[in-house]
Design goal:
With about 240 residues, the chain is an alpha/beta fold. The chain has one domain (about 5-235): Rossmann fold (3-Layer(aba) Sandwich), CATH 3.40.50.150. It has helices spanning about 5-15, 25, 35-40, 55-65, 80-90, 140-145, 165-175, 200-210, 235; strands spanning about 20, 45-50, 70-75, 95-100, 115-120, 150-160, 180-185, 215-220. Helix 1 (about 5-15) packs across helix 5.
């Protein structure tokens, strides 16, 4: 492990807005912040999550743009989280936090109705094999977890450069008759800044230079709706073997 990573891990431990629950606490539902996020932030503003936040660029960008909401970036990579944690700490931001966990454990860190919205920004499309579909952050498996923490009809956002993940998410929405809010096949084809915040991460800038299309979907997730998986479109998926 590089010296730089160890330094970042140690610094993360000193940041008051970086939460790193122990594995046993997660399994036993003993994470201190669960049900106490408003107390943590010191206000009752909406709580919005970014899943797989990486370096936290989008989390910090949203928090700067919308100071009347609280933003929590979630990722398992501590060395990546460090960047967003340091930026928000050094600039004195009070509406940002970072949570170092696997997304699988998200429902152990938030109480029912504690979260208002969820962002999935450029998440892994898991296209390598059929069983990877359940690892997608917009799959019914993960939506079931979100139902346990989102307010009824809370909003889920997807921003992606992957056409297959985009199409799959629309299939999930259609299969479960979820209320679709926005479907934008190309956020840079016209002016959509009133819908999609004009925040570009390092990788989004790189992908735009490669002429990749950036897509966006938002939909509401009813809390008590049983969710079903759509049929797998083998031709479209083109699984990598």
């Amino acid at each position: 492990m590089g010296k730089n990573k160890l330094t970042r891990f140690r610094e993360n431990e000193k940041f008051p807005h970086v939460i790193q629950p122990e594995y046993e606490a997660l399994l036993n539902d003993q994470v201190d912040v669960k049900g106490n996020w408003q107390k943590f932030f010191g206000n009752n503003h909406p709580i919005i999550l970014e899943l797989g936040c990486g370096k936290g660029e989008y989390t910090v960008g949203l928090a700067k743009r919308y100071p009347q909401s609280n933003y929590i970036g979630i990722d398992i990579k501590g060395a990546r989280i460090w960047r967003g944690a340091k930026t928000s700490n050094d600039t004195g931001m009070k509406n940002v936090a970072f949570l170092r966990i696997r997304i699988d454990f998200i429902h152990h860190c938030f109480d029912k109705n504690e979260v208002d919205e969820i962002w999935c920004t450029f998440s892994d499309p898991h296209r390598e094999k059929r069983k990877g579909i359940n690892k997608r952050l917009t799959s019914p498996k993960f939506l079931n977890r979100y139902q346990k923490i989102l307010k009824d009809n809370g909003i889920v956002h997807l921003k992606t450069d992957d056409p297959i993940l985009y199409a799959y998410t629309l299939d999930v929405i259609e299969k479960n008759d979820l209320p679709l809010i926005h479907d934008i096949p190309n956020i840079y084809d016209g002016n959509h800044s009133d819908v999609v915040p004009p925040i570009k991460t390092h990788y989004e800038k790189k992908w735009l230079e490669e002429d990749r299309i950036i897509r966006y979907i938002s939909f509401r997730l009813p809390s008590n709706l049983p969710l079903k998986a759509p049929a797998v479109n083998e031709k479209r998926e083109g699984f990598i073997k």
